[in-house]
From TrEMBL:
This is VOC family protein. It comes from the Bacteria. InterPro entries: Glyas_Bleomycin-R_OHBP_Dase, Glyas_Fos-R_dOase_dom, VOC_core. Pfam families: Glyoxalase. Transmembrane segments: none annotated. Residues 4-134 form the VOC domain. CDD domains: VOC_like. Gene3D superfamilies: 2,3-Dihydroxybiphenyl 1,2-Dioxygenase, domain 1.
Amino acid sequence: MVLNPFHLAIQVRDIDEARDFYGAKLGLPEGRSADHWIDFNLYGHQLVTHLNPGIGRDGKVPSIANPVDGHGVPVPHFGVVMQFDQWHAFALRVRKVIPEFLIEPHIRFEGQPGEQGTMFFLDPSGNALEFKAFRDIERELFAK
């Protein structure tokens, strides 16, 4: 499967905080940047953080949660689909830098089509991220 990289621009409340979270904590390489935005390489995709110091009353982007497999899944959210070994290694690494998971790393839909590893957490501005894994991405990503 050949995928085209996506481009996603999100709002953050503080550029230095975004640089620390996405760059130092998550280990994403930084690309171009200016005073009000930063490009990050999110596993081959372009994630751009744009400064919006007026995000919400408490400095967080708004979201809701929808029930999926017994958990409240935040909407909106974004992330990356990985192979299981890469996902397990990532989960071990981020456990050291993420103070709280919205949904702890676990296996969802176990034994069913679309079985996947998943985890959810927030960036400091309240943007929800999901990192998930499949054993066979091409066959399972859109399995019914």
